Amino acid sequence: MTAPLNPRPPTGEFSLIDWIRRQAKAGQSTVLGIGDDCAIVRPSPDSDWLVTTDMLMDGRHFRLDQDGPEAVGFKALGVNLSDIAAMAGVPVAAVVAVALPKAHAVALAQGIHAGMAPLAERFGVDLVGGDTNAWDGPLVISITVLGETTARGPVRRSGAVPGDAILVTGPLGGSLKSGRHLRPQPRLLEALALHQAAPLHAMIDISDGLASDLGHILEESGGLGAILDADAIPIHPDAASLSDSDARSPLDHALNDGEDFELCVVVAPDDASRLIATPPRPAVVHRIGQVQGEPGLWLRTRDGQLIAIHARGFDHLHQ
Amino acid sequence: MTAPLNPRPPTGEFSLIDWIRRQAKAGQSTVLGIGDDCAIVRPSPDSDWLVTTDMLMDGRHFRLDQDGPEAVGFKALGVNLSDIAAMAGVPVAAVVAVALPKAHAVALAQGIHAGMAPLAERFGVDLVGGDTNAWDGPLVISITVLGETTARGPVRRSGAVPGDAILVTGPLGGSLKSGRHLRPQPRLLEALALHQAAPLHAMIDISDGLASDLGHILEESGGLGAILDADAIPIHPDAASLSDSDARSPLDHALNDGEDFELCVVVAPDDASRLIATPPRPAVVHRIGQVQGEPGLWLRTRDGQLIAIHARGFDHLHQ
C-alpha cells in the first residue's frame, strides 16, 4: 500500500485521478507483469472484477495508412476503458494482443505502445501482458481490460425503470468528421463522480449511436421504451458540419452516429435534477428524455409531436 | 443452462450475441456474463487472478480452409488454457474477440463456438463476454482467460535453481504431422496434481519448442543453464514419422518443434524421483535433464559427449 485511501470523495478532476490511482494501488494489483505464461493480479478485498474486450481492425475501426499506429493504440485502449467507465468501474490492468503487418512490425508495435502509454498512465492501468505476432495481413489489435467495482457496485444496463430520466455527458454526432472517433476520452472520472453523487440505475457508453445504445438499456431493463426531446439532445458541432455535406440533419447524426464515447445515464428524476443543478465535477450532464413503461423509442418535437426512432446504429457483423 | 438452444440460426450481430449468451451458463464466479459493457467475475477469497491472452491468425496458427472453424475455436481456447496450466492455475472465465471474414461471418462464429464449448465445459470455464466483428480480412481470434491460483500459489518461470531436475509430461515433436497442433490438450489437471504432490520450482508449457521454452525458464531464473540427456527425451511417433520425410532427426524435432503443449517442469531432484515413482494421476512425467549454475543448454549423448543446443523455436515476430 503506497498511500491511504482517500476518506473524502474526490472533488476535482485531478484529485479524482489521484483517487482512482489509489484505488488501484491499494491492492497492489499487479503481482506479476509481462514475462511469464500469465500475469498475476490481486483483487482488492470485497471488489468484483469487471472484464471487457474490444478488437479493432485496419480498414474497419481505423485506417493505419492515414491514422498511424499511435492513434490505433490510443483508440484501442480508450474504447476498452470506455466500457469500464460504462459500469462505473476503476480500470486496473490490460493485456494487449496484436497481429502486426510483417514489414513494419517493430515500428508499429512501438507506435501502438506510444499511443496506449499516456492513457494507461493517466488512469493508472498496468499493461500486464500480451501476445505480439506478425503476419501478412492487416493490423489487428485486441485489448482486454480488467477493472474493479467500487463500494457503490457496478452500474449495469438493466436497471432502468419507467419514469427515470435519461442523461448524456456531452454533445453527440459527427465523430468521424474531426477524428474524434480515434480519440475516445473514456468518461471514467465522470462515471465515478456521478455514481458517487447518486445511485445510477443504468449506464452505457455511446459507441454504436445514442438510439442504438439507449435501445440496449431499454431492452436489457425488461423491454421498456423512451421519449427523447428533440430540442434537449446536445448536438456536437461536428454533426452540424457533417450535415452540410450530406442529406442528414444534425439531429440524425446525434441520434445515429457512433463513437462519441459519451455516457448515456439513467437515474431517478429527482437525482437527475440534482445532478444537473450541482454537477459532480468533472461530469456535466444533459437531460434528454424519459424512460417509459411501453416499448418503443420516440422523438418528441418542439410542437409535441411524437416520431418513432428506428435505431440505425453500427451493426458490427453486417456493415 | 437457463434457456434452450435457439431453434433458428442467428442472422445478425445481436441475435448472435443472444445465441452465444444462451450457450453460456453462469458459473459460481460469473456474476454477470455476456450482454453488458463488461462481464463481472467474483474472485474466491485469498486467490489471485491469472490473466493470459493469445491471438491466432489464419495462415499463421491455422489454415481456415483446411482446418475449419471448429478446430480454430478449440485451438484458440486450448492454447490459452495451456498458459493457465503452466502456472498451475484453475481457469475460470474467458472473453473472446473475433474478426470474421464477412462472407461467412455467422457460420464461422457458430463453428468457432462449437470448438470452444466442449473445452470450456470440460474445464469449467465460463465464456463471459466477447467482441464479434466482420471484415474483408482473414479470420483472427483473440482470447483472454482468467484463472485462479490455488492455495499452493502459482508456479512461475523464475524459480529454477542449480541441481533441479527437468521433467516433461509427455512425448514431444512433430505436432504438425498429425494435426496435434490444432488439438492442444491443456495439462491443467496434470499441473494441479503435480503441484499438489510436490512444490514445483518452475513450469512452462511447450508452445515454441522444448529448447526454446526451457530457455525461457533458465533465463527468467537468473541466467542458468541445463544439460538434457538425449536418450531420456520422450519422442513422439509423429517426430519419427516427420523425420522420414525431412533431413531432421526425431530428436531434433522433439527439441525444436513447437505446439506440443506438454509441460516442462522443474523440481528438486528428490521430488522428481518421487513424482516418477508414484505419478500423481493423471500426470505422467519423464526426467530429461538437470539445471546447471552456468548458462548454456547442452545435450548429453549416450557416450557422455556434450553438444551445445541452439534453440530454433518459433519467433513470433520474424518468422
UniProtKB/TrEMBL annotation, chains A, B:
User: What UniProt keywords apply to this chain's record, in alphabetical order?
Assistant: ATP-binding, Kinase, Magnesium, Metal-binding, Nucleotide-binding, Thiamine biosynthesis, Transferase
User: Into which EC class is this enzyme placed?
Assistant: transferase
The gene coding this protein: thiL
Q: Which residues bind Mg(2+) 3?
A: D37, D83, D205
Q: What protein name applies here?
A: Thiamine-monophosphate kinase
- Binding residues for Mg(2+) 2, per the UniProt record? D54, D83
* HAMAP family named among the record's database cross-references: TMP_kinase (MF_02128)
What is the scientific name of the source organism? Singulisphaera acidiphila (strain ATCC BAA-1392 / DSM 18658 / VKM B-2454 / MOB10)
Q: Which family does it belong to?
A: Belongs to the thiamine-monophosphate kinase family.
Instruction: List the EC numbers from the record.
Output: 2.7.4.16
Specify the pathway: Cofactor biosynthesis; thiamine diphosphate biosynthesis; thiamine diphosphate from thiamine phosphate: step 1/1
Q: Which residues bind ATP?
A: G130, D131, R157, S207
